[in-house]
Amino acid sequence: MNSRQRVLTTFEHRQPDRVPCWCGASEEFWAKARRELGLDDEALRRRLGDDFRRVFARYAGPAQQLRPDATSITPFGIQREGIGYGQPTSHPLAHASPADVRAYPWPDPQWMDCSQIRAEAESYDGRYAVLGGDWSPYWHDLIDLLGMENMYLKMYDEPGLVDSILEHVVSYYAAVTRRIFDAAAEAIDIFFIGNDFGSQQGPLLGEDMFRRFMLPHLKRLVDLGHDYDLKVMLHCCGGFYELIPAMIEIGLDGLHAVQPCCRGMDPAKLKAEFGDRIVFNGAIDSHHVLIEGTVDHVRRQTRQVLEIMAPGGGYIAGASHDTILEETPTENVLAMFDAIAEFGAYEQ
User: By the number of CB atoms within 10 A of the CB, which of 128, 205, 256, 290 ranks highest?
Assistant: First the structure.
């Protein structure tokens, strides 16, 4: 099997030749690994055995003016500062009326250039599982626009206002993604989206509120991917065990990246309860194993996770965090992927 066949077999909850590998890494770790191993991007992905590749639309809209203290800006004009993606420097709809929401300068989906996506996806020649579509972090955008505590209050006091903001945000992401898929769906395999509904101690909102505010929009995106015959995988950090049944109900195909150190996210429990209905991606602890462990410890823990998660298919092996961080020893990451290759083969 090639990588694409391996991944798509896994999404059918059948056993491929071996467990697929996923490598998500921070820019800082990736630069370090390239330097230490003397490899370019593609050679490094092949060394790690990564079965996935990803394509993106590019911003081609009006020039965005960053403030001197800002490090990034969202599609909705929120300037952010600090480490990584940073934190929002303002919450422009915190005190908005319904009229203010309607008048807000929402972005135009036409600002995203999709012209190169098909050629880029086809350059992989069907060898890898290709991820595409807009990341669509509508939960995070809602928090940015309203402020987190204020958002929770408005869910009770002004639910219609929250609905209106979410409708604008998700409509933008859906329109961008539809443009991407119209251009290149035949060369894409998985619609990959991201919203962190969990914390270290459990969901960031209860199941009732999740179903009321978040699930309809998640279903809209899942249905959009399925309309183009694509699988849909959600990145969701933290503990969100209580929300998984609702995600399965709407037809979500996969969850990335299982964090076993969070409440409710025990791999054996997840596999037993949901493993035949949704693909799990991750579960090899990024913190206590990959960052703090020895090479031998990484190998043992990787093998243990494979023994739990691999049987019957429906599992993609990789780190439990969206991006492997710079402080992670390169030799530990190599040990994880080498152990997946060694212990992840299925009997044919």
Answer: 290
The b-or-e profile of 179-205 (16+ CB within 10 A means b, else e) is bbbebbbebbbbbbbbbbbbeeebbbb
Q: Does residue 186 sit within a domain?
A: yes
Domain assignment of residue 348, yes or no: no
In a domain, 121, yes or no: yes
**Is omega for the bond preceding 257 within 30 degrees of 0, making it cis?**
yes
Domain that holds residue 53: 3-59+100-343
Which helix H or strand E contains 221, and what residues bound it? helix 215-227
What CATH number did the domain enclosing 175 receive?
A: 3.20.20.210
Q: Which H helix or E strand runs over 254?
A: strand 254-258
With respect to residue 208, please indicate whether it lies within any of the assigned structural domains.
yes
- Residue 180: strand, helix, or coil: helix
Q: What does the block give as tokens for 170?
A: 């998700």
Residue 79, SS3?
A: strand
Claim: this prediction has a pTM higher than 0.85? yes
Compute the CA torsion angle 218, 220, 225, 227 (nearest 10 deg): 160
**64 vs 242: CA distance, rounded Å:** 39
- Bridging pattern class, strands 52-54 and 129-132: parallel
* Structural domain count, the chain: 1
Question: Quick one: tokens of 36?
Answer: 């230490």
Give the C-alpha separation, 314 to 250, whole Å: 18
Q: Look at residue 278 in the predicted model and tell me its pLDDT.
A: 98
